[in-house]
Write the structure tokens for this entry.
Amino acid sequence: MLDLEITLRATCDLSDIKRYTTELFGVAKANHYLDQIEQAIATIRTHPKIGKPVRLDVTYFCFDVEKHRLFYQQKDLVIVLHAVLHQRQLPILQLTGQLE
């Protein structure tokens, strides 16, 4: 399994998802949804090419989890999670020029 690095952007995205889901659907649903995201990250760490390539200013891989998309790259033996975007968010507006 590859190591994992989560960028500040992705950490903020996950925090926002938890807050929003908790406010609308309650703690149990928020925890369940974040568990699904964690399971998806574990899958990516084991099978890094599972995502679809998305070419912006650089190439990311994209993996869907319900209504969100995980945008990541593999750098040597590390998966770098750059963002967790809602399916309605346009990656080109959110990720172009955002590499840390």
Q: What stands out?
A: The first helix runs from residue 8 to 25. Residues 10 and 98 are 11 Å apart (CA to CA).
